[in-house]
Amino acid sequence: MGALRQTVPKAWIEVLGHPSRILLADHPRYADRVTDLERFDIYRLFQPETTVSSQLQAYLQSFDLIIAYWPTADDMLHQQLQRYSKGHVITWPPHPPAGVHVTDYLLQALELLSLRDVDPTPQIEMHAEAEAKAQAFWQGPPALGRRVVAFHPGSGSARKLWPLEGWHDVMSWARHHGMEGIVIAGPVEQERGLQTALQPATGDWPWTRDLSLRDLAALLRRCHTVVSHDSGIAHLAAAAGAATLALFGPTDPRVWGPRSPRACVLQPLTPQPLTLQNLPPEVVIQTLAALHEGTFAWQPGRVPCTIVQI
């Protein structure tokens, strides 16, 4: 979105998507308006013999360019969008091929616009309301200015999870060394009962629950370091500007690693399913200590993130 705005600064840019996911784009730097996907009968665009509503037709015809990042096995969506719109249509599968970082791949969809010199490092513009909520949170424990570490022990995919014993060891070490911490939790983490399982390690650290992406980004921006699985939270933390330590298992960090000069990925040398079972807690502790003390050796900015294979 930042690349679009930079390239066509006077254009009207609108984002259509799921409300919880497009909140971050609701900023003048990115879009003039964000619209709930459920407002229209979008599903009809995937049915060749049906006609969409006049409301959706009018909406599609109001744009000179439509870019649809949508996974589809055929070109039905492209054909339907061309049928109902008057402008140019680009449909782009959101999943990148091997060896291409996801950010670079998504930017390739915009090549026809002759993109200007675009910084491919994602960054998030903060919202005043979210900043105010983060400020209110940090007025209590943990105290602002103590180089807080945020931990996110969850993931939407079970194969990306590090065993709870590892998280327990790292959190215990951090707390016993005087670090202030918070734990990021969502519905998945609550279903797994992580707070009860990790309570001996986290002590009185606060747990955040069910924050919007906008509010969570503002909270993470104020953290010194964020430790996470291979998850959306790792990308959010990196884009918010926090030093990010991501634990990767079977996923290729050259493609899916959080892109930031202050993001580090730890990954066993031979990635495979359940490979995080073999990630030693002491390696995570050593890396976290170096990040916290400012002695970590970052790799040059020509790579998406610093990748340390064990």
Description of the molecule:
By secondary structure, this protein is of the alpha/beta class. It folds into 2 domains: 2-113; 128-309, 3-Layer(aba) Sandwich (Rossmann fold), CATH 3.40.50. The chain is built from 13 helices and 11 strands. The protein has helices at residues 2-7, 19-22, 54-60, 76-84, 102-108, 128-138, 164-176, 187-191, 194-202, 213-221, 232-240, 253-256, 281-293, and strands at 14-17, 33-36, 65-69, 88-92, 149-152, 181-185, 207-209, 225-229, 243-247, 263-267, 306-309. A 7-stranded parallel beta sheet has the order 7-6-5-8-9-10-11, with helices on both faces. Helix 6 crosses helix 10, helix 7 (164-176) packs parallel to helix 9 and helix 7 (164-176) packs parallel to helix 13 (281-293). The longest helix has 13 residues, at 164-176. The protein is elongated and about 60 Å long. The two termini are 35 Å apart. The model has no long low-confidence stretch (mean pLDDT 88).
